C-alpha cells in the first residue's frame, strides 16, 4: 500500500457526518497564527539566529519524548549522545545515532511523537517517504543540508510557521542575556520570557543555597531575611516584565498551598537557608511560596501558571548521570481541593488574579478542576499537559471539563515544548481535536454550527490571548 505520510483527515471522526463538519471547522482556523505563550525553547536560537547543526542534534538529542522510549527498550542514553553531567564519554557520531532512531522508529507507532515527527518530516522538510532504516541516510542528509540554509534559520522558521508570539521560560537567577540581546530588535515582543522561580523556592534542590546568593547578587536585596527574599523576588519579576513576561510558572510536586503568619514564615525560611529541613517542611515552604506568588501576581498583574503533580527524577541513576528533564518524571495523584484551599481562601474571589491550573492527574478533571474553575473567578484550566498532550488526552479533557467549566474557563492551547520544529505539529493536532470535538456536538444537535465556528476561533487564539493577557492580534 502507498499510504500518504499524513492523512489529510487525520484525527477526525470516522463518522462521515462528523468528519465533514470537522473539515469545515478546521478549514476556518487551520492557517491562523500560532500563539505559543508557554514553552521551553532556547532563547539563544532567536537571539543569535545561528544555523541549527544537524538532524540528530536538533530533533533527537534534546527530545526526552523520543529518547525515553528508546531507553525503555534498553538503549543507553550514552548511545544516543545525551550529554552526561560529568562530561563522560557519549556517542558523537550523529549519523550513527540517527540510525538508532530509524531502526527503532516502529516503537512510536500510534504515539503523539510519530504524529509530530511525521509532520516535521513532511511539512517542514518536504520528505515524502516514510522514515525507516532504508531511508535514514536520505532523511539525515536532506534535513542536515536544509538546516544550513537561510530558510531554516530560527527567525525564518518563526515566520514560516506563522508564530505570532513565543514565550520561553527562565529561572529566577537567569539574567536573561538572550532576551537582553533581542531588546530593541524585531524579536522584542515576539519572543518573550516567563518567570519560573523554582530554582529559589524549592529547598530540596541541590543548588538552592547557591541560588539564594545569586538572587541577592542580581537584586541587591538581603536574601538572608524573609522580607529581603520576598523583595528580591519582586525585583526579579519586574525585570522579567521588562522583557515581555506576562506570566509566571511554578512546577511543584503537589498543589499544596499554605498561609502561615509572618513569624512562622521567617522561622521556616531560616531552616531552609540552613539546609536543615525535613521533606514535610520543604513541602510546606513550597506551599507557602505559591500563596506568596499569588499575592505578587495581584500586585503586578502577571498570570500565574501552576504545573502540579509531576514526581521528578524517579530514576536516581539517570538523574545522577544526566541531570534533570531526561524522561524520568512520572505523573502522580494530585489533590487540588485540599491543596489549593489556603490560597483560594485568601485570594480565590479576586477577579483581578489569573491562575491557570495544569495537571497530570486526569482523574481530577471532572471531580475537582472543572468545578473549581467553574466557580472561582481567579481560576482557568490549562490544556492537557505533557503525558496527556495527545489526541486521546485532548478528547478526554474536553469530555470531562466542558460539562462543568464550559469552554471559556479554559486557556486555549499551549505546546509547552523544547522541540521548536514540532510546534506547528502540536498546534495542528490541538486544532484538529477541537474541530473533532465540536463536530460531535453539532452532529448531536447540542451546538449550532455558527456557535461552533465562533468557538473554534476562540479556542485557537482568543482564549489564549485573554488567559495570558496578551495584546489583541
The overall pLDDT average reads: 96
Architecture (CATH level 2) name of the largest domain: Alpha-Beta Barrel
Rg, Cα atoms, Å:
23 Å
Spatial order of the strands forming the largest sheet = 6-7-10-11
Please indicate the count of domains.
2
Note the overall shape.
Answer: globular
Q: Major beta sheet, specifics?
A: 4 strands, parallel
Low-confidence parts lasting 5 or more residues at pLDDT below 50? none
Distance between the termini: 44 Å
Number of helices: 21
Strand content: 5-15%
Q: What is the count of β-strands? A: 11
Based on the model shown, name its key terms.
473 residues; alpha/beta; TIM Barrel; uronate isomerase, domain 2, chain A; four-stranded parallel sheet; three-stranded parallel sheet; 21 helices; globular
